[in-house]
Design a protein that fits this description.
Layout lengths: L2 H9 L4 E4 L6 E6 L2 E7 L6 E5 L2 H10 L4 E3 L8 E5 L6 H17 L3 H8 L2
Antiparallel strand pairs: 1-2, 2-3, 3-4, 4-6, 5-6
Length: 119
């Protein structure tokens, strides 16, 4: 997955915006103001911080040591840093991004979730 493919995929979800609250190099992808992905698109290697169910986070770290690690500068229980350099299947990376988005949406207030469902 290239940096542009990562960016495009994150922006493909409903109501997502890209923000730069920390610096011009760090892309923060948010849904209704809540962070679900954080990356430096020009980073080498390319990595992305993603929200994850705590049990899944531990399992993924065990299955993909060195490629999926506890979230850098994040709550290590709920966030993983995923290396997107081609060693992980793109399909898995997309699933992890989608799971992160879904977890954040699930935590929104009901009214906010209902607004997301409208066309």
């Amino acid at each position: 997955m290239t940096p542009e493919e990562l960016r495009s995929f994150c922006l493909s979800f409903n109501a997502v915006v890209e923000d730069f609250p920390f610096n011009p190099e760090t892309s923060v992808f948010k849904v209704v103001g809540k962070l679900f992905a954080l990356t430096q698109l020009d980073g080498v290697p390319l990595t992305v911080n993603l929200k994850c169910d705590p049990e899944d986070a531990i399992r993924l770290r065990g299955e993909y040591p060195g490629l999926i690690v506890p979230g850098y500068h994040m709550n290590k229980r709920h966030w993983n840093t995923v290396t997107v350099d081609g060693e992980l299947p793109d399909r898995l990376v997309r699933e992890l991004i989608e799971d992160s988005y879904d977890l954040v949406v699930a935590g929104l207030r009901r009214a906010e979730r209902l607004r997301l469902d409208r066309p």
